[in-house]
C-alpha cells in the first residue's frame, strides 16, 4: 500500500479523505497547522514540511483558506514534493474557478496552474460547494430579521462525503490531469435553499432577493459555478438538514 499525505487533513473534507484512505489500508499522514507530528503552516513552509513529504508517494492537497495565502502555500508544497520525489499530487478545486472572477476562485485557478506546471504527476478535481458551507452562510444571514440573498443566483450543493469518496479514489490511481467535475444532485435557487434552512432550524425570518452588481455576481447569476451535467449522489439539501440542523 502507498504512503499518502493529506494536507488540511483535519478539515471538513480532509478528515473524511483520511478516513477513507486508512480504511483502504493505506498509510496516511495528516498535515495541518496543529496536527502533530506534521504540524506545518504551508504558507511558511520550512523543515517540517520536508519531513512530512519524505517517503510519500501521493499528496492530496485539501488545505485552503478564503483569507488568502493559497498560492504561496502551494508553491511551498510543490517545491517540497519535488525534493522528496513525490509521484502524484491531487488537488481539490471549485467548479467555475475559470468562469467566475471572484478573488478566492482566482486563487484556486492560480493553484491549479501551479499544480499542472509543477513537473509532478497531477490530478485536479473541481467540486461544487458543500452543504455545510451553505448552512454556515445562512446561519449568519438569519441573525437579523430580514435575510438578504443575491437575486437570481442558484447553487448546486454536494455532500462532502461524495467528494471525499472521489478524492480517495483518485489518490490511489495514476495521475489523470483535470478530471470530470463533481456537483450535487440538484440545482436550486438561493431562496429555496434558504427557506429549507429556515424551516429545518425553526427560525422565522423574511427572505428578500437583492440584485447586486459586478462581474462576479453576473457570473454567479449565469451559473458559472454550476455543473448540472455532473450531478452525483442522491443526498439533497433537505436530507443534510434533517441530520445536521436542529430546531
UniProtKB/TrEMBL annotation:
Residues 8-132 form the NAD(P)-binding domain. InterPro entries: Ergot_Alk_Oxidoreductase (IPR051604), NAD(P)-bd_dom (IPR016040), NAD(P)-bd_dom_sf (IPR036291). It holds the Pfam family NAD_binding_10. PANTHER family: PRESTALK A DIFFERENTIATION PROTEIN A, PTHR43162. This is Uncharacterized protein YbjT (DUF2867 family).
